[in-house]
Amino acid sequence: MADLILHHYPASPFSEKVRLMLGSKGLPWKSVQMPPIMPKPELLELTGGYRRAPVLQIGADIYCDSALIADVLEHLAPEPALFPEPSKGLARALAQWADSSLFWAAMAWNLQPKGAAEVFAKAPPEAAKAFGEDRGKMSTGNMTRLRPADAAGAYRSYLRRLSDMLDSTPFLLGEVPCIADFSAYHPLWYTRRIGAVKGILDITPAVLDWMDRMAAIGHGQSDKLDAQAAFDAARQATPQPLLRDSTFQDDHGLALGSPVTIRAESFGLEETAGKLIAASRTHYTLERSSERAGTVHVHFPRIGYVLKAAAGT
Ligand SMILES: N[C@@H](CCC(=O)N[C@@H](CS)C(=O)NCC(=O)O)C(=O)O
């Protein structure tokens, strides 16, 4: 199998989710670092426009979004399971809540003025300004950012709910970590990195203990790779046959082979354009080419993404 190449950056919570899943599965991986804000010319050349972190590359297959990456990792290494029976529906629903409601409450809390001041303490003043402007631009569209004062109560309630789930088991849904644990962990991991705001976690000691268990999973074995080597890997590979379950499901009136665009529903609306070559129950695949990457298949989950006919078609 081609190398697993993770495009990410150290401080990205959703990337931490994937780094831990890679560690849990014992899958060795290559690490390509992207900048935390735009411009990200190399990532965009690979994805065709998608800008968020993380992105997983396997040869000429590019997987956008940590939810889809979780499915890919489960397919590659079924054990230990991220979606264990009989609670896989519950695990997915809990993970979706954690990746959205919990994440945004935590991030509003984390990046309140004293948190942001600490995060950018060692950076030049322009860095904090550039980050704020970048995230401001990403937050256009159908997205409401919580104010820290409103986020505080929600975050505390969410921490207590997680704590309740840990009353009788070491992980949220049982004896072993599942996708719900990885999704709930990463926003709290970011909180814990910031001395000025991490005290909120002290209200739930059981959550702190669970966080220690999650951190102990580690990131597995990784080696650094530069972006050029990732382009070489894409160009030299042929995209793989599509994942299981690629029966065409047309909800948009768009035939396979149509020129289309795909973008996130919210937070980072940059479009990826390409030819629609698969639309299964759970994900879309676009084929596109670029000079440095050659022909690649770029995969997106259905949930959270907007598929449209390309303009002018
Ligand atoms: N639903 C996406 C969310 C990804 C996301 O929002 N990532 C953040 C970093 S943790 C991001 O991309 N922020 C803007 C950036 O890094 O450019 C996923 O699960 O991968």
Question: How would you sum up this structure, described in words?
Answer:
The chain has 313 residues and is an alpha/beta fold. Helices cover 42% and strands 18% of the residues. The chain contains 10 helices and 10 strands. It has a 10-stranded mixed beta sheet with strand order 5-2-1-3-4-9-8-7-6-10, with helices on both faces. β1, α1 and β2 form a beta-alpha-beta unit. α1 runs parallel beside α3, α1 crosses α8 and α4 packs antiparallel against α7. The longest helix is centred in the N-terminal third of the chain and has 23 residues. The mean pLDDT is 96. It binds glutathione. The site of glutathione (GSH) has 14 residues, from α1 and α3.
Topology:
Elements: E1 4-8, H1 13-25, E2 29-33, H2 41-47, E3 55-58, E4 61-64, H3 66-76, H4 88-110, H5 113-119, H6 125-138, H7 148-165, H8 179-192, H9 205-217, E5 222-224, H10 227-236, E6 259-264, E7 272-279, E8 283-290, E9 294-301, E10 305-309
Parallel strand pairs: 1-2, 2-5, 4-9
Antiparallel strand pairs: 1-3, 3-4, 6-7, 6-10, 7-8, 8-9
Helix pairs in contact: 1-3, 1-8, 4-7, 4-8
The structure holds glutathione (GSH).
Glutathione (GSH) binds at residues 12-14, 36, 51-53, 65-67, 99, 267-268, 304.
| Secondary-structure element pattern, one letter each | EHEHEEHHHHHHHEHEEEEE
Please state the average pLDDT score: 96
Q: List ligands, each type once.
A: glutathione
Radius of gyration: 19 Å
Number of strands: 10
Spans of 5+ residues with little confidence (pLDDT < 50)? Answer: none
Portion of residues in helices? 40-55%
Q: Structural class, from helix and strand content?
A: alpha/beta
Q: What is the beta-strand fraction?
A: 15-25%
Biggest sheet: strands side by side, in what order?
Answer: 5-2-1-3-4-9-8-7-6-10
Question: What is the molecular shape?
Answer: globular
Report the span from N to C terminus: 37 Å
Q: What does the main sheet amount to?
A: 10 strands, mixed
Count helical runs: 10
